[in-house]
Write a structure and sequence with these properties.
- The structure is a single chain.
- By secondary structure, this protein is of the alpha+beta class.
- The protein has three domains: about 260 residues, no CATH class; about 90 residues, no CATH class; about 60 residues, no CATH class.
- The protein is about 30% helix and about 15% strand.
- The protein has 14 helices and 14 strands.
- The protein has a ten-stranded antiparallel barrel. The chain has a three-stranded antiparallel beta sheet with strand order 8-7-9.
- Strand 7 and strand 8 form a beta hairpin.
- The chain is globular, with a radius of gyration of 26 Å.
- The two termini are about 50 Å apart.
- The chain binds zinc ion (4 copies).
- The site of one zinc ion has 7 residues, from loops.
Amino acid sequence: MAHFLSRLFPHSPTPGGGGGGGGRQLFSEFWKMSRNNESSSSSNVAAAASSSAGIVKGSSVLEDEGAGGLVQDVADLRVKSPEEVGGQDIVVEEEEEEEEEEDETLVGLGFVQPVEQAWKVSRHHFPSKVGGTPAWLDPINLPYGKQVLCGICDNPLQFLLQVYAPLEDQPEAFHRTLYVFICPNMACLQQDQHHQRKQPAEKPCRSIRVFRSQLPRNNSFYSYSPPNPDGQDSPSCDGVALCTWCGAWKGHKACAACKQTRYCSRNHQIEHWRAGHSGFCRQVQAAKSASHPEPGSTKDVESVKVEAGELMPEDLHEPHKKNLPGIACAASDKLWPEFELVVDEEYNYEAEDNDRSNPGPQMEVGQSRAKQLLDEYERRRKAGEEFSASDLQEVQEASQEQQHWVSFQARIACAPEQVLRYCRSQDAKPLWPLLEGQPKKSTDIQPCSHCGGPRNFELQVLPQLLYFLRVKNEPSSLDWATITVFSCTASCTSGVSNGYAEEFAWVQLAA
Ligand SMILES: [Zn+2]
Ligand SMILES: [Zn+2]
Ligand SMILES: [Zn+2]
Ligand SMILES: [Zn+2]
């Protein structure tokens, strides 16, 4: 019998349609397929494994410190182009390949595609999506308080993406979604990463946060049966009122003047006011005073203009009619563009004869510093300059970094528009773009803050996403080499006080 999830998204493209993007599907379909494939050993998957381990070994020929040898050594460290190391050149030895076949798991690649119909990304269709507003799985018990704020600048965090990733073997995670929020301010991310190794587990001060929500099939928010594929139905209950400006967080305060618009924070009220709410607010007030004339009402309108209204607390659980049916809306024009996230297996792309001269958008990220250094050494070598031991140490590190980058690039080049890599298994590891800035699993990846159990890698966001988010290429713009998400291995529910457990993000910044 087909699993619930295969019937959940009948509008999704046919899975397994081969490489080149023909087989892309919704994430919910991927879980089913990856679980089926886990039991069978696929040679294609093993091939993918070998190329991930196929980091080109940098020349380790720097033992001889004699000046004559040094020139030769630096020349040996010349960085190979993606063409030279791509494809078969990065295959590791046969024996290693066989060993890895045992524990290899399927990697799902996430791709963005335009949202064709708004209902496809509404919460009762359990979407995976990028940008716009989050589709909260639990629409009532949202993250709150400090959880929604950047720990550095105190502004509300911005929704980056969510991935629907249910666990078939856990009835309490029949529905399961991971959410990534980030402060769009690059200075905050830099601060966050600067302190990343020193974060106190109990009081994290982060500019990026990951939330996990899960529900059993029988729950008070969604029907036991799959939603209609025509988008005609609504969720079985309303969610809490959301902030009118960001559409992400609880709108637990209302504008005191018009009493209609809701905000998560004073900051968003002010932004909305400046963006034009002042006009709307006055109209509402004018209409009110026309129907119920009150002394001094005209003066009130004026004072609102000056003060951007007061905020007054409202009932947190009052449904927000504007956000029905399950589709959040936001007044802000600063949200990232919205996409659906679809998935395909990585091995569909491995066999293809890819054009490696086109590594995809923004692929130059992260390599610049090592490359500059190597270019500089190449120039000095040609000029006949001598190199000290520390010079060589530096050039070797830069060379290894560059080789690592080239091999990362070669693997990504098979499907250059991928924005996300997903693999939830005991052995899953991120594909690091850089050698520098990787966490030590034993000390840097904090245990689950709810059950105390270990966390494991589950997904990573690639820098290509910045291109689709139309992030500007300026020094102050948001940038990352990769965002990795580590989640509770047990995907626990105990100890999760509201609808959302917090998980752990490690960001490798572009050098
Ligand atoms: Zn911030
Ligand atoms: Zn807001
Ligand atoms: Zn107002
Ligand atoms: Zn846990």
